[in-house]
Amino acid sequence: MHFLASLTTLLVSATLPATVLAGDSATATLAGPDGAAMGTVTLSQGSGGVLVSADVTGLTAGAHGFHIHAIGSCDPDFKAAGGHYNPVGSGHGLLHSGGHHAGDLPNIHAGSGGAARAEYFATEVTFEDGAANTLFDADGSSIIIHDKPDTYGESAGAGSRVACGVISRN
Ligand SMILES: [Cu+2]
Which domains does the chain have, with CATH numbers? Predict the structure, then answer.
């Protein structure tokens, strides 16, 4: 009896790490290079990935590259966010044979008023502390929106960084 009870405990702890609770959430508050508020991205841990929900203002009309970048910093400028989050060292591009980075997400599209909403389910990142693909590694991670659309090819081609927000646990 005691052996079975211990085994059950072990199995439960192996499948449900205490550091990940579905429903855990995080927020990236977006700002432009001039510091102007540009909306919010909410991230929620699901059982098989992270739901990324973006509510953005102040964009130019059209499509914009939308990525998770490798470093949780927007200071002193948006280059501080580093490149795309790419914990397994793959190539770039959602439609490229050598791609894609874990942080590559589809473009976000703004209307003529500059507002945009999008939801993504990012299956290659996690909130789990200590995991190779965690959003909360030693240097954190961030959301970057670019001036131009990502080409989804070997080169992102998405141009300058027009919005940045550090991903912070709620
Ligand atoms: Cu990017």
Answer: 20-169 (2.60.40.200)
